Amino acid sequence: MQFSTATAPYRNTFQQNWLLKLYSIVFLIGWLSTLLGTTDLANWFMENTLVIIFLSILVATYRKFTFSDLTYTFIMVYLSLHIYGAMYTYAENPFGYWMKEFFHFERNHYDRIVHFSFGFMLAYPMRDFFLNKMEFPNWVGWLLPIEITLSFSCLYELIEWGVADVFFPEQGIAYLGTQGDIWDAQKDMFMAFCGAVLITLIVLVLKKSLQRKGEVQTN
After folding, report:
1. How many structural domains comprise the chain?
2. What is the pTM of this model?
């Protein structure tokens, strides 16, 4: 089995793809452990609602469109970061407290990590989808994931407001995790935007580098 990327002409089926099977098993075990170990069950269900929807869509559409192995790797890492945050609530995450103490931060920054990873980890899967399912031009595959990351970040902040203020006001503070920062939503969107821009630049540089090496070897 070969490790596929967005531009690879092949896709491994689930039966052949031991890596995707491994990801599925590890994630389900980790997901269950966060449920059993959570300190706030109501928040855990709120935080994981979008995870359930997202995974359901991936499973339901798998036969119609299979992502590359690199895409599933990015998705696995992002969802793992998210469910770990949901286990404790983002504002009370132990790793965030460790960073706060070690780097002398004024707040728990674990939420910033996950928002950054939203752009960094999911811009590539969007590129994979646009190039191979939608068959958009290559330049659209570079630009559109950045734009959608910013749009989705804004939409997520609106969803957070709706959930926290309208539907579950008693869980609002824990769910929002603003920690007293009035610009929290704007900073979260900026972090996601930076993540999407950074991964796009990294992939673009690596792609150009590999192309140059290929040209040198054929000369």
Report:
1. 1
2. 0.87
Angle ∠(199,200,206) on CA atoms, nearest 5 = 85
b/e per residue 40-60 (b: at least 16 CB within 10 A): beebbebbbeeeeebbeeeee
> How many other C-beta atoms can be found within 10 angstroms of the C-beta atom of residue 209?
10
- Token readout for 145 is 């994931």
DSSP letter string, the chain: -----TT-S----TTT-HHHHHHHHHHHHHHHHHHHH-S-HHHHHHHHHHHHHHHHHHHHTTTT----HHHHHHHHHHHHHHHHHHHH-GGG-HHHHHHHHHHT-SS--HHHHHHHHHHHHHHHHHHHHHHHTS---HHHHHHHHHHHHHHHHHHHHHHHHIIIIII-GGGHHHHH--TT-TTHHHHHHHHHHHHHHHHHHHHHHHHHHHHHHHHHHH-
Burial of 106 (0-12, 13-18, 19+ CB in 10 A): exposed
C-alpha–C-alpha distance, residues 132 and 130, integer Å: 6
Inside any domain, residue 115: yes
Segment-wise mean pLDDT, segments of 10 residues, the chain, 219 residues: 85 90 97 93 86 95 94 97 91 92 92 94 96 89 94 84 66 59 83 96 89 61
Alpha-carbon span 55 to 66, nearest angstrom: 13
Range of the domain at 161: 18-214
Q: Is residue 200 part of a domain?
A: yes
